[in-house]
């Protein structure tokens, strides 16, 4: 699931694109922002579909081997147990999953080499041999080989990684979220009755989180000049072109939260943007941003412009 920090990163990406664009249509960029969140969920469904297609390839491989000119005994007796894996069957027959696959057109038929690659790697693994030999057909045991396919093959195979990066522009940034969503799916699927299981959610409370990112994005733009004035005043000794756009946007996002989001504690806001700076800006940006924000925050407090309510106390 997307947590608040990851949602803030989505807003940062949208603001960066907005600032570089000549077409300043806020609503259009809001739509792109929401689309970038939906892209995460779509990628998640495609990952699940790849697990399914890998199991489907078991049947294709078995059929091809049986139809060889001189099939061996092994060719004639390929174990297709993976195709009837209880976790995959429960997922395959889950109506929610079926609906999302249809919505996103998630099928690897356009590039069958992907599932073939995953299966060919799997086929030579001792873990797969152990799975085929095991008599434990509990749902818990069945999930273990699927976790192995995801963690030890799909996640670390360069050619598979490249396919996802080509198809989903934010794949490198979204991997952590997708890992959590796939893990949540394994956790959620506790029943062999397909529709008793639930797919992972895009966020803990999407209605609330949707409002948060849209409001954050629109308010940063609405109060751009005002917050730029604060930043300019505190960076007089810096040449403007030496301050990275990412740093400026992160400071404006932080100031927007400090002033216009009364339920978010000051410390949460400050910590979040400093951490985001560590990952997405220059090595020294987090210290720079922290120093500038501390000075502006002191001024805003003195002017009574930082009003936090409930759990969001200033200190």
Question: Can you give a write-up of this model?
Answer:
This protein is an all-alpha fold and 315 residues long. Helix content is 70%, strand content 0%. It has two domains: 4-196, no CATH class; 223-302, NusB-like (N-utilizing Substance Protein B Homolog, Chain A, Orthogonal Bundle), CATH 1.10.940.10. It contains 15 helices and no strands. It is elongated, with a radius of gyration of 25 Å. 30% of the residues are buried.
Write the topology of this structure.
Layout: H1 4-20, H2 26-66, H3 73-76, H4 86-92, H5 95-104, H6 113-123, H7 126-133, H8 139-154, H9 158-167, H10 171-188, H11 206-222, H12 224-234, H13 245-260, H14 266-280, H15 285-302
Helix pairs in contact: 1-2, 1-11, 2-5, 2-6, 2-10, 2-11, 11-13, 12-13, 13-14, 13-15, 14-15
How much is the radius of gyration in Å? Answer: 25 Å
User: Can you tell me the overall shape?
Assistant: elongated
- Helix/strand-derived category reads mainly alpha
Q: Number of folding domains?
A: 2
Span between N and C termini? 29 Å
| Sheet with most strands | none
Order of helices and strands: HHHHHHHHHHHHHHH
Kindly report the average pLDDT value: 94
Index terms:
mainly alpha; N-utilizing Substance Protein B Homolog, Chain A; 2 domains; elongated
Offer a concise description of the structure.
The protein has 15 helices and no strands. The chain has 315 residues and is an all-alpha fold. The chain has two domains: 4-196, no CATH class; 223-302, N-utilizing Substance Protein B Homolog, Chain A (Orthogonal Bundle), CATH 1.10.940.10.
